[in-house]
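Aim 2, interim progress: modelling of the guanosine-5'-diphosphate-bound target.
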Amino acid sequence: MAESAGGWRLGGAMRGLFTRPTIDEGTWDDLETALIGADFGPDVTDEILDQLQEQVNRFRTTDPADLKRMLREALEERLAAFDPTLTLSDRPAVVLVVGVNGVGKTTTIGKFAQFLTSRGRSVVVGAADTFRAAAVDQLATWAERAGADVVRPQQQGQDPASVAYQTVDHATRTGTDIAIIDTAGRLQTKSGLMDELAKVRRVVEKLGPIAEVLLVLDGTTGQNGVAQAEAFIEHAGVTGLVVTKLDGSAKGGFVLRVQQQTGIPIKLIGQGEGIGDLTGFTPHVFAASLVP
Ligand code: GDP
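Predicted structure of the complex, ligand included:
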């Protein structure tokens, strides 16, 4: 599991910002443009600019290298304001994975199963998105590659809550450490989707507590992604965020923005389509990748 930020392009917007001989008016304009361009959003951008201007004045520095260090520290402090630790100590630890279709939910579950099995944990994956037969097959293929068991619906359109129940029941009977449950993501019927998620939660909770509800978000979607997150947070009891598609993206500011706006910690980062391309979220590594 790569913990390094080597392959990321998150820092693209920041590169070249600090090569001026001195901090001047242009520096602040360029920094604002870079932060907006990297998808920090207007509110976070203003907060960061205010903080840095105040610090630069207080320390009476005109050295761009100082500003760069202050920026990295400011980002790290904000990123670290939330606890990214996954709570997986129950046995079985039940993890619901939610999010709209297309964000990378299936891929993330495959990668997460691999993340866990490679650390010696046993995993069962439940395909509770029962309306998309192809999605069930895709999920099963990922899970099998990761060395996880799979619980599939017996027929297309089976009640998702019953598949979720069978998955946790399987984990309990076989002593499996972690049950990861995929859920539907059809956005067209938002209230239907939220009702379905609520039912899955209710049924699973009959067998024991839910350890984590992870919301998967596409890191390239900006404010739409934040709005999507808020709907799920309101209805689905989200405990952590997974941000995908950050490989090759210059939009890494989304991570800080969505965490600050929703108050929910980022727990995992997806950075590619391969089974190993998921990492835990490490604020100082991420801050360093944003300001290389
Ligand atoms: P779902 O509909 O939410 O289950 O989405 P999928 O898991 O099927 O993923 C949708 C597309 O996004 C697929 O082409 C994936 O390969 C791609 N994808 C998922 N995660 C990542 C990621 O972290 N980086 C990149 N570059 N692509 C990803």
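Residues 7-79 form a domain with the Four Helix Bundle (Hemerythrin (Met), subunit A) fold (CATH 1.20.120.140). The longest helix spans residues 42-58.
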